[in-house]
Amino acid sequence: MYGRIAKFRALSPPATLRIPDTGNGKDTRSLMMFTSNPFAGLAASITPAMMQAYVVIMIVLVVAGTLFDVVHKGSAKYFFDNWRKSKRKGAKQLGGGELVSIAIQTGVVDVLASGEFCNARRRVAHLLTMYGFAIYVVTTAVMVFSYSTPEMPTPAFLPQLWWLGGLMTCVGGYWFWFFIRVDVVAEGNSPLRFVRADLFIVSLLVSVTLGLIWAATGSGVGVLFGLYLIATTVLFGSVPWSKFAHMFFKPAAAFEKRVSEADGSAENLPTQTRDDPEQQQRHSMELLRDAPMNMGLGIKREPPRHY
User: Fold this and answer.
1) Which of 273, 270, 268 is nearest to 88 (CA)?
2) Residues 163, 206, 139, 113: is their CA dihedral positive or negative?
3) How many CB atoms lie within 10 A of CB 220?
4) CB atoms < 10 A from the CB of 179, how many?
5) Cβ distance 143 to 171 under 8 Å?
6) For residues 189, 192, 197 and 201, what is the CA-based torsion angle, rounded to 10 degrees?
7) Which residue, 223, 117, 103, 122, is CA-closest to 177?
8) In whole angstroms, how far apart are CA 304 and each of 128, 171, 196, 298, 307?
9) What is the pLDDT of residues 98-134, one digit of tens each?
10) Under a CB-based contact definition with an 8 Å cutoff, are residues 144 and 191 in contact?
11) What pLDDT, in 10s, does the model give residues 169-215?
């Protein structure tokens, strides 16, 4: 009898695990949205060469716009003139090793960690936007140049990083725009107020937001895709009139500041502080000559919201 049971079980088909059908497949489509290359679907209407040419043109616009901004504003001339003045007025000459150390400190503290921001909320928003935009741009370039057609399978992590970078950019950018901007928080202006200085952040947010919406709605050639291209072209083509080039100027300015502090020139600013006895005796108000160093919060006692 046991032999017959064993023979019957061997002839029976193996049991299969059935997953209940939700009825609409939304979960599957959502998962595919985050793991599929949104640019590969364009190959049916736009050739990969055209997509790659557009990316190259955007890179050229950034380089040309930055060089134009440098020449027009005289930024490079000012930087090197100030560098020479600092070297002449410096109390000591810095060696190559010291300059390398200062450059590393500038890269780690001022660039990678955005150490210039004292406000923690402002720094976090800036870091989210900066790293998010970097991830978004790099993954876009990789998918356009290496996996631009459906026949070239895109590794799932690339679209996921693309989405992550775009969402980080939106979180940091909108947080800054609506809740941290000084002319909104401290001066009471409307968060919808727009001036030319806002061109970079606004075009950045519009471009990334439209890109995410376009990818979420099927990533085909249509009105959304056209708006996405227009916003992206404005972002990279408006470098001479926006703050885009500041991401290249700020590291140079931070490096120059650290060098001036190290060689003693201190950017032609006073180096004595109130805790220096000689500086205390030079104070114009006799009452404050013996005042304690910590005199309270002062204007930092409350946020500047007196509008």
Assistant:
1) 268
2) negative
3) 13
4) 12
5) no
6) 130
7) 122
8) 25, 25, 24, 12, 8
9) 889 989 999 999 889 988 888 889 999 999 999 999 9
10) no
11) 999 999 999 988 877 777 777 878 888 888 999 999 999 999 999 99
